[in-house]
Amino acid sequence: MGWAARFLTAVSFLAAGVLFAPDVLRLSGDGRAAAAARLVHLLAFATAWGAGLWVTFIGGIVMFKYLPRHQFGSLQGKMFPAYFMLISVCSAISVAAFAYLHPWKTASTIERYQLGFLLSALGCNLSNVLVFTPMTVEMMMKRHRMEKDLGIGTEVGYSKNAETAKRSPALAAMNRKFGMIHGLSSLANIISFGSLAMHSWYLSSKLDL
User: Fold this and answer.
1) Which residues contact 43 (CB under 8 A, 6 or more apart)?
2) Tally of helices (H runs) and strands (E runs) in the chain
3) Which positions, given as ranges, span the membrane (predicted)?
4) What is the per-residue pLDDT for 16?
């Protein structure tokens, strides 16, 4: 099934869901707008949080554990820009929808905190899209070229890199530079995930299951 077919299938299921929530159809214009904003906010938040959970704690770890290191790095270099762009777009949508539902002037203190959490997630992801990820990918490619000249990089894990760095001051310096920028990128990602996790408690308190 192609991407377009999968997307249309998902949209069809989303549209069909209205049939099982008939109260939405009986709402007035403003009520429908608010219901649509709540749906958009929930879908955008769930996408951002779910993607963050998978990439940060499952997908990336599994790939690093089983793929040759340069192959893993090249894949991450293509995946992470798309990942952070997705999370940024979803965070921006969540911010806009939440701000529409809870205007700042009339929002409670708790609601203002929640908007702050969402803005924190957006800011962290934009920092990755615009600054940290491009720098990380560029540094990674330089290190790959250096490692190929040293005859390493096709192994799984960092063992050969660590051993070779003991004999190569240039590789050791490159490792430090890469570790610093990659650490900043990872920190921004974790702060974003944590901010969304904190917002999840607010959303769960609003559910009446």
Assistant:
1) none
2) 8, 0
3) 42-67, 79-101, 113-137, 184-203
4) 81
User: How many beta carbons lie within 10 A of that of residue 123, not counting itself?
Assistant: 16
Specify the length of the chain in residues. Answer: 209
Encode pLDDT of 109-158 as tens digits: 999 999 999 999 999 999 999 999 999 999 999 999 999 999 998 999 87
The pTM is what?
0.88
Residue 107's nearest CA partner among 118, 121, 122 is: 118
> Do the Cβ atoms of 88 and 129 come closer than 8 Å?
yes
Tell which residue, 126, 125, 116, has the closest CA to residue 95: 116
Measured distance CA(187)–CA(192) in Å, rounded: 9
Neighbours of 80 (CB within 10 A): 21
Retrieve residue 59's tokens: 């997908």
